[in-house]
Fold each of these.
Amino acid sequence: MIRKLQSAGGKTARSVVIGSTIIATAIGGIGAISDAARAEFFLGESRGSTKINDKPTKFFTTGDIPERPALIIELGENFLGEGNLQQGFELPTGAVWAPALWVFGTLRSAIQTIDTGIGDADRITDWANRFDFFANLQLTATEKIVLGIRPLDKNRGGQFSGYRFEGEANGDDEGFLDFTNANIRTLFAEGDIGSLFPILDPQGTSWLDYGFTVGRQPLIFQDGILLNDTQDALGFVRNNVRLPGVSNLRVSGSWSWDSVNRGATGIDNSGEREGDLNQFGLFTAFDTEFKTTNIDLIYTLDSDDNSADEDGDSLHAGISIAERIGRYSLTWRANGSLAIEDESDVVTDGALLSTELSWTPHGSDDTIWINPFVSLGNFTQAGRENIDGGGPLAALGILYASPNIGQFGSELDNKANDNFGGAIGYQAFWNDHWTNLGLEIAGFKDLGLEDNLQQGFEWQVGVGFQAQQKVTQQSLVQLEGFYALQEGEGDIDVDDDAYGGRLEFLYQF
Amino acid sequence: MKVSTPQSSLRAFAVSLAIGSAMLLAGAMTGKAEAAPATDLHAQSPVIADLAPGSFGPAAAEVQIAEATDGIVNDADAVEEEKDAQSAHDDLFGESRYPSAATCGTCHPKQYEEWAISQHSYAQLSPVYMAINNFLNFSTSSSMGDFCLRCHNQVGANLGESPFISNLERHPTSREGITCVVCHRITKGYNKVSGRLALAEGSLLDPVMGPEGNAEMERVLKDDKYRVVTEEEELGRKIHTEAKKFEPISTPTFCGSCHDVTLFNGFRLEEAFSEYRLSPAADRGVTCQDCHMGKIQGIPSDFDYGPAAVVGGVPTKPRKLSNHLFSGPDYSVIHPGIFPHNADAQQLATLEQWLEYDHEAGWGTDEFEDNVSDDYEFPESWASIDDRYDAREILDIQFERLDFARKKRLEVLRNGYHLGDVKIEEATDDGIEFEGEVKNITDGHNVPTGFTGERVVWLEVTVKDAEGNVVFVSGDRDPNGDLRDLHSLYVHNGELPEDPYLFNLQSKFVVTQGRGGEREAVIPIPYTVTALPIVRPTTLSLVFAGEPTTERNHRKGIEPLGNRWASYEVDGDKLTGKGPYTASIRLNSQMVPVNLITAVQRVGFDYGMSAKDVADAVVEGADILWEKMVTFDVHNESTVSQNATGKAWIEGQLRR
C-alpha cells in the first residue's frame, strides 16, 4: 500500500513539478525540463559518462590531495591528525579522558551596499567583519566543552567592526566602526551519560547512553523555522529508541531558562533577551522506509504573576515530513504558534505551511527548487537569534535569508505574517563543486485576512543571484546581488525599489 | 622458489628480522596443510587442527633472511639501496612499536588464520575504502584528515602514515588493518571513540591485554619445555612478559569503540553499538562477542575450547577460545595474492609483483603452461615457469580460504535476514499483486547495521510466464551493475527509468541543500550549502540535536525482530495469457553499491584498478541470502494451494 501511495504521490508531484518548471523556465530562462523526453538542459558541469570507467585512472595520493589544514591551536593531540594518540587518564567514574584543546574559527569580511527603498532610509554601504572564534576542549569523543566569542561584532545589525562608507545605523554615520568585544556567545558542555559514567554499566548493555548538553548554545529546530536561537539550556536526548516499523527514533527534551529571544512579529527584532522565563521543548525525529518525520513542541512559560514584564505563555509546534518521491525531494512543513493568553509583541497566533521541492536535471548535479508557503495569521518563532538565520521564511529562499553580517539584512521580508509566496531557484556547480551559482526569484503577497501587528509590505518580488568560488584550501569568495519591487502597507512607507550587492571573503581557520 | 628482487628482499628482510627472531626457534610447528574449507556453513575454520604454517601462516618467514640477504649483495643501485635501507629501518622500527599479526601468528596460529581472512584484516587493503577516504579528503580540503584511517588502520595512523598513500607504500603492519595489537594493546576502556584508540606501543616482549589474565602465561614462562625468554638479548623463544587481564575486551562497549561512528561535526555514520544497547539481546545480557566470536557467526553459539597458543609446538592449557573471523557483509575485491594475508605469498612476491600475476589467464596451471606460446610476454617477475607454478599453488589455497570466508559471510547474513511470508493479494487476468516479507531475525541490532548508508540488501523479483518470458522485474541491475535507484548513473542521466518497486534496505545519505530541502547523496558532502565544505568541531550541541544541520543518514534498516513488506503489482496488460506465472523472489546482499564506486572514481583506485574492475568484483561478490518461488494460476484458483491467502502455493528454497 505504501508503495502504491508512493507511486500515486510521484505522479502528482511530477505534475506539480512540470507545471512549476514551466514558470521557472519562463522567468529564469534556465532549467527547461521535459521529464518525458529525458533530455534536459542544465547550466552546470555534466556528470560525465554514464558508463563506468573501465580504464585505470590516476590514484590520488599525497601531493594530489593537500595536507590536513591545521587549526589555530591544537594542544593534546591534533584535530583529525595522524600520530600517536594520548593514553589519557581514568576518572573514578571509569571514563577515560584524553583532553585536547582545539581553537578554530571562521573569519568573514564583506563589502556590501543595500538600499531597502523604505521611507527616508539611506542606502548603506559598508565594510563589515565578523569572526566566529571557538575553543573546543575535547575530553573524550563524546564529552566536550565549547566556548565561542565573536570579537568583531555585537550580534546586532550594523554593529560589526569595519567601515561605513555611506548611510546611518544605530546612531553611527560614516567612518570606522569598532564593535570589538569579548562577550561569550557560546559556552556549553555536552556528553553521554554512558560514556561519562561507564562504571554504572561496564558491559554497555543498558539504556545508559543518554546524550546531554548544558549551557549557552544555538538551538535549531524545523530548519530554524520553529526555533533558531542561542539560549541557556539543558537538554537530554535518546537515540535509537525501538518502535515497530521505525528504523530510528530520536527523542530529546530541553529546558531553557535564560537568554531566550522570543520571536518578534515586528519588522525590527528588538533583540532583547529575556531572563525571566522558562521554555520547555520536546523534539522527536524518526525514520521510516520512505520518510523522515520531525515532530517538535515548545512551551514558553512567561506568565509569572510576580513579574512586571511578562509577555505571556505560548505554545509552538512544528511537524515536517521529508521524503523522496521518484526523483523529487519534498519536505512538507507545518509550524504554528499560539498565545495561551493574549497576543503580544513576542507571540501571536499563526501557522506557516511550506513545502520545499527540489530535483536535479538529468546528467548534472545542479538543483532546482520550488518552495511555496502560506502563512495564516501571524506565526512567531519560539526563539529567534538576532542576526543568525533570520525569520521563519529564511529557510525557504536565498532572498529571504540574511547573510548575517553588517547592515545587510535579508533582501526580502522574511516574516510569516498573513501572506503567501515562494521562491523558485536554480543552483549550478562546476569544478568539483568548488564553484557554484544560485539564481532565484522570490516574493510574497499579503493575504489581507488579518490585521497585522506591524506588517511592512503589501507585496515584494525580487530576483537575485549568489555565486561562490573556493579560492584556496581554506577560503572562498562570494558575490551576491538582488533587485526587488515592493509596495508597503500600514505604517511602512515604501518609496522605491530595493537593491543591493555584496562581495564577501571567508577564511576557515 | 622465486628469487626476490633487491627491493622486496630488503623489505622482507626487515620484516623477517622481527618475525624471525621470534620464530627461528619456534619452528616446531608441524603438520600438513589442510586448508580445504568445510562445506557445512556451520563448520569451523580449517586451521584449528593441524595447521601448517608453511601454507599461509607466518612461519614461512624463517627462510626469508637468507633470501633477503641475497638481494642486498646483488644490488648495485646506491640510491635504491639507501631507500630500501630506510624502508627496512622503518619497517623494523614499526615492528618494535606495533608487532605484526604475522609475529603473533607464530604462537597463535588459530587466531591468526581466522583473522587473516577476516574483514578486520581487509579493512585497510580495501580499494573501495581507500577511494572513499581519499575522495572525502579531496572534496573537503583534506579536513577529514585521518578520520577514516583511525578505524581502518590504527597502526598506520599511529605510525603517522598519510591517510592517502597507496597500500603498496605502507608499513607491513599498517596493511594489516585492524590487526592484533589494535585490540590486544589497548590498556583502557575508551568507550565510543569512533576508532580513535590509543594503542600502547611496545614490541613482542611487552605485555598484551586479554580476557583471561596471566596465570597460564606465568606457567609457560616457568616451564622449561617451552624454552621462552622475555629479554631482548636473551637466546630463546621470545614471548610476552605478561598477559594482563583486561576486562573491557570482553564487553560490548569495547566493540562500540569502533562500531559507533560519529564524525566531529556530529554526523552519525554508524550506530551498531547504540542500536545494540536498546536491543532485546542487550536486555538478555547477550554480548557482541557471544554472537560474533562464537562457533557460529551471528548467533550465540558457545565457544571452541582448546589451547590459546602453541609455543614451540607445545600447546598451552585448553581454555575458551573466541573466534576471530568477525564475518560480515564485506568481501575482498583485490588480487588473491594480496588477500587473504599469507606469509608464503608475501615471501614469494611483493604486492606489486602479485598485481602482475594474471591468475585469470591461467598462469601456473598445466592447461595454460602446456599451451602457452613461446612469444607470450610475461613480466620479468614471472618469467620463470617455476615461479608461476609456485604462485598458483599458493593461490589455490587462497581461493579455498576465500570460499570459506564466503560461507561464513553467508552464515552471519542468513542469521540476520530472513525472507518471510509471501501474500497474494490478487492473481487474475487483470493483474497480479503480491507482497513479500523481509524479517530481521536477530534481536541484537538493526539489519543492515553499521555502515548502513552503503549496505545493499534488496529483493530481486522476476515474474515469468509459462514460456519463460519476463513480464515483470524489480531489483534488476543497470549496465554498470547498479540497482535502478536514483543513484544509478543510468537513472540519474535519464537513460533508464527508476525502479518504482525497488525494495532496498540500504539507508540513504541526505544532504541539506542551500534551499529546497534535502537531496540524496552517495557521498554526503554538503556542497550545495557551501563551495568550501570543511570539517571542524561542531559549535552547536549535536549530541543533543542528533545530527548536523547539513547532512544526515536516512536510516532504513529493520529494527530487531522487526519486518518490512515489499509490494509488487503486475499490470494485466503485461500478462501474456500464457500462465501459470512464476515469480522468483530473491533476497540479495552486496557490500556496497556500484554507484559508490562511480561516485569516488574521480580520485582513482589503488592497485591500478579501474572503476569497472572494482565494480565487477563487487557485483560478483553479491550473495543470494534467500529465495522463494511463487506460482500464480490466474485461471484456475482451485489448483493453487498452501498459501495463507489460498490463491497460490509457495515453495521455499534455501540456496545453501
Amino acid sequence: MSDIDIRTAVQEELNNIAPEIDLATVDPAADLREALDIDSMDFLNFITAIHHRLSVDVPELDYPKLITLDGVVKYLEAKLKSSTS
Amino acid sequence: MVEFRMPSLGPDMEAGTLVEWLVKPGDWVKRGDIVAVVETQKGAIEIEIYQSGQIEQILIDLDSKVPVGTPLARIRTELEAKPGAAAAAPPPITPAAPPPVPSLVRAPVRPPPPPIAAAPGAAGRARASPAARRLAEAHGIDLSTVTGSGPAGAITYADVERHLGEAVAPPERKRALWLDLDAMRTAIAAAMARSKREIPHYYLEHQVDVTACEQWLTQKNATRPPDSRLLIGALAIKAAGLGARRFPAFNGFFRDNKFEPAQAVHVGVAIAIRGGGLAAPALHDADQLSLDELMSRMRDLVQRTRSGRIRSSEISDPTITVSSLGERGVEALYGIIYPPQVAIVGIGKVVTRPWVVDGAIGPRSIVTLTLSADHRVSDGHAGALFLAEIGRLLQEPGKL
C-alpha cells in the first residue's frame, strides 16, 4: 500500500470521528487529540477502524507513537512494510 | 385491547412531533420493538413499544404534535384470544423495570407475521427509520432494494449497514450534523435550571487510587484486538452501578414530593456530542453486565447518541447518572443532577501523584470522584459511604 493510500485511509477514518473538521487545516505535527477534540473512546474507535481497514493491530503500548497525523502514517507505513517483507 | 401512549422522554418534555411510523395496522410487534420516531428538542428519538401484540389501529397522523400520554395506537395483546376478553389496563408510562426476565406477554403459539412487503408502502416509499434513510442517501442506495428486519419489514439502520457490506468506500462529503443543537441546548438549559431551583444539592469528593485498575487493564488489553479492549470508564460505570445497588438512596426518582427507589440500576452515561450537545442515555442494568458486555454496549450507545439514534427507553430510564470529562480535562467535576434522578457521580481525569502506600511514597494514578446528591433523599453520611464503596470496588478490578 502506498504512502498516499495510507494517509488517505487515515484521514478518512479521522473524518468519520470528527466530521466537521477540515483535516487540511490540521498541522500534521500537532497532537490529534487536541486538534480534533477526541477522547479515549474516539481514539479506540479510530484504532479499531484502522485494524479493520488496514489489518494493522495497534497494541496499547504503541499508542504514544500515534499522537500526530505524521506519527500515525509513519507507524502504519512501517507496520505494513514489515508485514510484506 | 390496550392503548400505546406517547411516553415521557424527560422531565421537561411535554410534547413531541411524530415524524415516522414504522408499523401499520395488522403488524405484529413485541415489547421493545421500535415502532415510531418522534422529533423532540433532544433530537429524533426511536420510540419502543411497551406492549406485545398486533397493531389494531394507528391513532395519530404523521407530523402531528403529540403531548406525553396521548394514545398513539391501539394494540390487541396476545392474551386476548377473542373479542370480549378483559382489556389489560394501560401500563405505566415509566415502568419500574425488573432485572431481565422473559417477556411478560408470550403466547404459546405465535401466528406468523404477515408476509413482508418488499414494495414500498402506501405513501410510495419504503418504510425506514430516519437514520436508515440518511445512511442510504449518503451511500446512494435505493431503499426498495434493502430487506427490512424491523417490524413488518421496516428498514432499520442495521439493515442498510448490512446491505452496504464492507466494499463501499465512505462518502466524500462530511456527514451532516442533523441534530438541532440549539433545541438540545434549550432543553438542557431548562432541565438544569429546574434542577438547581428544586433540588437541594450537596457535594462530596473522594480521591481514589486507580493504579490497580490501570495495571489490570494494561494486562487485559495487551492480548485483545481493538474491538474488545476495555476503557477505564467501563470499570467506573460498573463500580458506580454496583455501588448504587448497595446504596438505594442514590438510585431512583424524586417525584410528587417523595422518593421512589428504582428496582433496577440503569446508569445514565453523560455523552458529549460534537458541536456542543449533551445527552445522558441509560445503560440498562449496568450493575449486572459483565465488563465486556458493558464496554460493548457503551460503545454502541456513544456511537448511536452521537449520530442521533437514541431509543425512548434510554432517555426515560436512567436511575442515576455518571459523568466523566475525559483525560484531557480537569481533576474534578461537580455535576448537576438530572431530574427526577437524585444523584450524579462525577469522574475527573486520572493524574499521577505522589502517594503513600504501605508507608512509602511513590507515584500512583489518582482519580477524583465526586457525588452530587439530593439532600431531600440522602445525607452526607450515606453519600460518603456510597462514594467510598465505589472507590473500594475499583481496588479489585478483576472482581467487577
